[in-house]
Design a protein that fits this description.
The chain has 458 residues and is α/β, with parallel strands linked by helices. The protein has two domains: 5-63 and 382-432, Urease, subunit C, domain 1, CATH 2.30.40.10; 65-370, Metal-dependent hydrolases (TIM Barrel). It contains 14 helices and 17 strands. The structure holds zinc ion.
Length: 458
């Protein structure tokens, strides 16, 4: 028997396939959790098992947005250290983050995920690297929140083992031992990683950064990830201060240091990559190392402008990242689509830096490639998983812009009329269907206030 079908018709479609195929008025047919057909005009007639027919007039269908870098727990520490660079911001926040526990991380994950999913994200990612002793099952709490909302998820088991007494930036009380970090990372992979085509949950290994992780942990995490067949993620080349740190401690820049520890390759992606010279970009391109471009966070922490046009020209895989919401309080991916476009035009390539379609590609197919899932998600093509968003563009914010992709990327965040993840509706008429947004808003406020009280009493 055929799988139940959802038919979406009469909408503009940006497929983000290899030819950037677009339809001014077309259809998408979803069968079960797969895309069955995409094309111009009406859907084929005589389809069986059609359980729902959506009139997409005035709307644009795109692949669901894919986020490639985040720190969910920061949802309850937003709006702090408002005028600091990365290192000063981290030093201010480490003692706050050292007091998080499982209920806080669960609420923060709910808040982070709800905000992203209601804004069109269909694949989320999290980089969690703060594991205070006795805080509970923090990774498990995030995974529970993602499963409840119904979002596709790449969770990473992060880690820090280079405290201040070892020349690192974090205080010693905020780090784990190298051995504990590796054991927990392996356990997370064994417990949760699902490598199947339809997978809703990937695990990756993610030591935090060169200035908070030992060389041994970097090397051993790479060996572990390759033995287990999972991906590797970290922060790289984010600020001038990090570059200086690497030269002082290792006698080389961040990219050369990563290469020396086994950290360049098709199975690696790094957040930020702002301070990259021509040879760094060439090394990423040669090895297939991916980049999570986080334009809002890079601006918030005065890190700089990543050379995205040069990376794309060299063939580096690039996706978009919200980054943690302590350095990007908006917490949703449309802002990154728009800021990727606008901020890169402030750099060397000016108006030729990125166009609206390239920005949409970064937020969809580019993200899929960075997460190693380009065969399954990231474009609207038959056989791929049914992760798609129907954006309402006939309202006050967008109706006077003729080009739907320009309306989506240059314009204000468009309402999500419908979002399907794995073929299931998760957003209808701009509201989440799987969880109670208002209850999540109350819960995150409660946990943020509880954390603030604990910190104030320290
Ligand atoms: Zn980050």
């Amino acid at each position: 028997m055929a799988a139940p079908r959802i038919v979406i018709e009469n909408c503009a479609i940006a497929t983000v396939d290899g030819h950037d195929t677009e339809y001014a008025s077309g259809h998408v047919v979803v069968a079960g959790n797969r895309i069955e057909s995409v094309g111009a005009g009406k859907a084929p007639e005589n389809l069986e098992q059609v359980v729902r027919r959506v009139d997409g007039t005035g709307h644009l269908a795109t692949p669901g947005l894919i986020n490639t870098h985040h720190h969910f727990y920061q949802w309850i520490t937003r709006g702090l250290a408002q005028d600091a660079n990365l290192f000063d911001w981290l030093v201010t926040l480490y003692p706050v983050w050292a007091r998080i526990d499982e209920p806080m991380v669960y609420a923060a994950a709910q808040g982070s995920l709800a905000m992203m999913v209601r804004g069109g994200v269909t694949t989320a990612m999290d980089h969690h690297y703060v594991f205070p002793r006795g805080a509970g099952d923090l990774l498990g709490a995030e995974i529970r929140a993602a499963q409840e909302i119904g979002v596709r998820f790449t969770a990473t088991r992060g880690s820090m083992d280079r405290g201040r007494s070892d020349g690192g930036l974090p205080p010693d009380f905020a780090v784990e031992t190298t051995e504990a970090a590796l054991i927990a990372t392996e356990a997370a992979i064994d417990t949760y990683h699902d490598p199947s085509f339809d997978s809703m949950l990937h695990i990756a290994a993610a030591p935090c950064s060169p200035f908070s992780v030992s060389t041994e942990l970097l090397r051993e995490a790479a060996v572990l990830a390759r033995r287990k067949g999972v991906r590797l993620h970290t922060h790289g080349s984010e600020t001038v201060e990090e570059e200086k740190f690497c030269h002082e401690l290792f006698g080389m820049g961040p990219t050369d240091y990563f290469e020396s520890t086994g950290w360049l390759g098709e199975d690696v992606w790094m957040a930020h990559c702002v301070h990259m010279n021509d040879s760094d970009i060439a090394a990423f391109a040669r090895t297939g190392t991916g980049v999570a471009h986080c334009p809002s966070s890079n601006a918030r922490l005065a890190a700089g402008i990543a050379r995205v046009p040069d990376m794309l020209a060299a063939g580096v895989p690039v996706g978009l990242g919200v980054d943690g919401t302590a350095s990007n309080e908006s917490g949703e991916l449309h802002t990154e689509l728009r800021n990727a476009l606008l901020i890169n035009r402030l750099g060397a390539h000016r108006e030729k830096a990125l166009n609206a379609r390239q920005a949409l590609r970064l937020g969809t197919y580019g993200g899929a490639r960075v997460l190693g899932r380009q065969d399954q998600i990231g474009s609207l093509e038959p056989g791929k998983l049914a992760d798609l968003v129907l954006w309402k563009l006939d309202g006050i914010g967008h109706s006077s812009i003729a080009d739907p992709v320009a309306a989506l990327v240059f314009g204000a965040a468009a309402p999500v009329a419908l979002s399907l993840i794995n073929g299931k509706p998760v957003v209808e008429d701009n509201r989440l269907t799987t969880v109670d947004e208002d209850a999540i808003a109350r819960g995150t406020r409660h946990e943020a206030q509880r954390l603030a009280r604990i910190v104030a009493a320290d």
